[in-house]
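Pinned message: reference record for Multicomponent Na+:H+ antiporter subunit E
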Amino acid sequence: MFFIVVWWILIQGKTDSWFVGLISISLALVTSLILLPPNQFKFSFSGFALFLINFFGLSLKGGIAVAWMAIRLNPDLHPNIHIITLRLPEGVGRVILINTLNLMPGSLTVDLTSSSVYIHVLDERQSIETDVRGIEEKIAHMLRLELKNS
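Predicted structure (tokens):
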């Protein structure tokens, strides 16, 4: 149904291109089922809301910290790479985690292994591991995943 609605919006409700639309919708549906089979994970809307609240809070905190570093005459930066062992299982949860970390001001994911993530930070005194653990918990709640013991 999602792909039908997207197609309808793209063609602005016109009926002259539904033949092409049915082929496109069918291909999109098959591709979607191959790449992300149903029941691979469950989704929690309340978990998503908590994730968004946490994300915006961390973004604001990080943005203020980076802005403060930028306007100081003599910035006291201590860049470093943190290696953090991940508790999320491999899959879509880790993809969301890595993308979320890359959107956080002052941090950038530089490598991902089967068990760890390497994160470059502008200031090693940031609470990056605490932030990663919190984000992992929110993602696990959102996708109803079990976290590994660290």
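Pinned by admin. Summary line: Helices lie at 2-10, 18-35, 45-71, 92-103, 128-143.
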